[in-house]
Automatic annotation (TrEMBL):
Ranges of residues in domain ER membrane protein complex subunit 7 beta-sandwich: 38-147
Organism: Mucor ambiguus
A GO MF label: carbohydrate binding
UniProtKB keywords: Membrane, Signal, Transmembrane, Transmembrane helix
Pfam families: EMC7_beta-sandw (PF09430)
Highest rank taxon of the organism: Eukaryota
UniProt record similarity statement: Belongs to the EMC7 family.
The protein's name: Secreted salivary protein
Membrane-crossing segments per the record: 139-158
Entry's Gene Ontology cellular component terms: EMC complex
The UniProt record lists the keyword Cell cycle: no
Signal sequence region: 1-18
Length: 200
């Protein structure tokens, strides 16, 4: 009987020392109407799912019976992205909150957040990458296109250079002729534009 009384007393002490964390989702340019939040797919969680609460139609939420300690508060939503908030509850039920994020040391506190909490959506959730269209400038960044362009320029200017270098000695003329032949061979070995696009 004494043991049962001890458990009852401990339970009342735990409830008395617990705190209800209150807050609200407030509208901004990303989420202009908080009443459109789908409560079935959006919830407030502490430390993963140690404590949970759903959002009311006016954006308010209440997490009941939270014991003193440090918690990571997250808004889990499939529609919007929200900031992560560190919430510290002292033994005297004093609440301090600050922004945090992935990769940030837990001992480092970010900018303070007012209490009761006011949370705004950061962005809409995106699950698919938009396919990029045809970019003609991207073709000129291709090493194959750069080599083809360089070879074409060499073939255009090489005959003019040969005419201007007719007075050179025979060995230099032979070297230039050999370079021109190598450039033509390199260009002939490269695939055509139709072949390059056919492989994609």
């Amino acid at each position: 009987m004494k043991l049962f009384g001890f458990y009852i007393t401990s339970l009342f002490v735990a409830i008395a020392s617990a705190l209800n964390i209150q807050g609200k989702i407030i509208p901004n340019a990303v989420l202009e109407d908080v009443s459109k939040i789908d409560s079935s797919t959006t919830r407030i969680v502490l430390n993963g799912a140690q404590y949970t609460a759903h959002i009311q139609s006016n954006g308010e939420f209440n997490i009941p019976h939270v014991q003193p300690g440090s918690y990571l508060l997250e808004v889990q939503s499939i529609e919007h992205v929200y900031p992560k908030i560190r919430v510290d509850i002292s033994e005297e039920n004093q609440v301090q909150a600050a922004y945090t994020g992935l990769g940030i040391d837990w001992n480092q506190r970010g900018y303070s957040v007012v209490y009761p909490l006011e949370i705004q959506a950061k962005a809409e959730a995106e699950y698919f990458m938009q396919r990029q269209g045809f970019n003609i400038m991207g073709m000129f960044k291709n090493p194959m296109m750069l080599m083809m362009g360089f070879s074409a320029i060499m073939m255009f200017f090489m005959p003019k250079m040969m005419k201007s270098l007719q007075n050179m000695d025979p060995e230099a003329a032979n070297e230039i002729s050999k370079s021109q032949a190598d450039a033509q061979k390199m260009l002939s070995d490269m695939p055509s534009l139709s072949q390059m696009f056919a492989k994609r």
